[in-house]
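BACKBONE STRUCTURE TOKENS:
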Amino acid sequence: MTVIERTAYPRFKQYPSPKELAEFYTPTPEEIKFVKPRVKSHEGLLSFMVMLKSFQRLGYFPHPEQVPIAVIKHLRTCLKLREWIKAIPSERQRRNYEQAIRSHLKVKPYRGSF
């Protein structure tokens, strides 16, 4: 049987290792420079960064509640944010962040041929 992480539709590992967190989810200084001017709050900063790193890893935007807590905690630590800062954006923020991330990464949304 195929391991779910190796299928055509990648998903998060529920318990990523410290090495995986550091390698795949630590924001670079360039990513922080990209995100900071586009947000107005600590919640926005964390939400945007979670979306950016999730998209980079998976190739799509997962629902915010599907992101493992370990990833959110890691990003909170990297961004020096307190543990009560939430990582769930409003629908409007989510659309804006998705558009900004796609533009930044030069990725066009899939528009099926229906």
Residues 42-58 form the longest helix (17 residues).
